[in-house]
Design a protein that fits this description.
Layout lengths: L12 H13 L16 H10 L4 H27 L8 E4 L7 H4 L8 E5 L2 H11 L2 E4 L13 E6 L8 H12 L2 E13 L14 E4 L14 E4 L1 H9 L9 E8 L3 E7 L15 E8 L6 E8 L7 E8 L2 E6 L2 E2 L1 H4 L11 E7 L9 E8 L4 E7 L16
Parallel strand pairs: 1-2, 1-4, 2-3, 4-5, 5-7
Antiparallel strand pairs: 5-9, 6-7, 8-9, 10-11, 11-15, 12-13, 12-16, 14-15, 16-17
Helix pairs in contact: 1-3, 2-3
Length: 395
């Protein structure tokens, strides 16, 4: 069946308000943000949507939320390494797909400073038309990748988490070669903790499984890859055997599950670089009669080691209606976050009957001792509340 693109206009009114509000809180301009998801975007249609029961509203919101969380990490790297976007000469987003990151980059960098590359030529055509950025078609053979200039930032999010050993090594070397001496090379991997049950790393510290969300890429070049920290460290050391290549590892910093590595160019010192991982959370259950108060339940998790979500505040539209402390909830939530450094927490509150109105938006803000803030949204349904009636109303 032929897919069609998805845009903001395809969502119900509640989710349009959720998306606009989150964009503002993440320092984006909702008026100029690109909301369209291309009909050929396999990452969205084959991975995100099935993960949320093919429900378009929540799937779309999670796409936007993930894009903004990724850019939050990207912005922090730019700020701590270069002192802000004004000091960046040029960036490369390798494996850019249909512009999940580009949507945010164009709001902070001149388009002529942005280069994107992907093996899907249709994705590059789409990005060229939508964003007017520089595009490069990628290839299976790193030696044939037709790009030779250097960049302040080379970013490869969720690329090395899909490559077999030989291509992992060759692309690592090729992309590091595009990193300016005063630049950084940033990539993500699946750590050992994410291995499927029954699987083990090989003797070199890598396990490659021949399946992925892609229905078109050959499984001998694109699958699911899991690696140890020692494997990545040894791979980075081989990038320049004549000197110590400095790098930093930030566990579970990208896409809620991937370890992020920041590799320094020859003249960069990474000792002062720091990241605060955005909090992750959402609504889980709502219950209540046709009239009267409604009970809301939710969860949150903090991936910043040594920190924890300490409080949450509930807003009905912009009116603060409740402040509370979450409680540890490992029994129900721990298995969703293997390897997370902190115990997930749960939270709950009661919405008074007098505030029930389907046009109002409920926003929960949760706060961590790390300084991070997270957001979750819900709409208020009419009538009796049960899980089926809340489909498409919760994030």
């Amino acid at each position: 069946m032929k897919r069609r693109k998805i845009d903001l206009s395809d969502l119900n009114g509640a989710f349009r308000r959720f998306a606009s509000d989150l964009l503002v809180r993440m320092r984006m301009d909702p008026g100029s943000y690109c909301y369209e998801i291309a009909s050929r975007d396999e990452m969205f249609f084959n991975a995100i949507m099935p993960g949320y029961g093919n429900e378009p509203n929540i799937s779309y919101f999670k796409y936007i939320e993930s894009a903004l969380r990724t850019f939050d990490i990207y912005r922090q790297l730019i700020d701590s390494y270069a002192g802000g976007f004004a000091n960046i000469r040029g960036v490369l987003d390798f494996g850019s797909g249909y512009g999940r990151l580009t949507r945010s980059l164009v709001q902070h960098l001149p388009r002529e400073k942005i280069w994107v590359a992907d093996i899907y030529e249709s994705a590059m055509t789409w990005q060229k038309e939508r964003f007017a950025v520089n595009t490069v078609n990628s290839v299976n053979d790193p030696d044939r990748f037709a790009l030779n200039q250097s960049f302040s930032v080379v970013f490869a999010g969720s690329v090395f988490s899909h490559l077999p050993d030989a291509l992992f090594q060759r692309w690592l070397n090729r992309l590091y070669g595009l990193t300016a001496p005063d630049g950084i090379f940033v990539f993500s991997v699946h750590g050992e903790a994410l291995l499927p049950a029954g699987e083990r790393l090989g003797p070199e510290g890598i396990r490659y499984l021949a399946f992925s969300e892609s229905a078109t890429l050959p499984t001998d070049v694109y699958g699911m890859t899991y690696v140890s920290g020692d494997y990545v460290a040894a791979s980075i050391a081989r990038l320049d055997p004549t000197r110590h290549v400095q790098f930093r590892r930030f566990p579970r910093s990208l896409y809620e599950n991937q370890d992020l590595y920041v590799v320094a160019g020859a003249s960069v010192d990474l000792r002062e670089i720091a990241l605060t991982i955005p909090l992750l959370g959402g609504f889980e259950l709502v219950s209540g009669p046709a009239e009267g108060a409604i009970e809301f339940y939710g969860w949150a998790v903090d991936f910043n080691r040594g920190h924890q979500v300490t409080r949450f505040e509930v807003f009905c539209d912009e009116q603060s209606i409740h402040v509370g402390a979450p409680t540890p909830d490992a029994d129900r939530l721990w298995h969703y976050f293997p390897g997370a450094p902190n115990i997930p927490v749960g939270w709950r509150f009661s919405l008074p009957a007098g505030l029930r109105h389907p046009e109002r938006v409920i926003r929960v803000e949760f706060y961590s001792s790390s300084g991070a803030v997270g957001y979750a949204y819900a709409s208020i349904p009419d009538g009796e509340v049960n899980p089926t009636s809340m489909r498409g109303l919760l994030t």
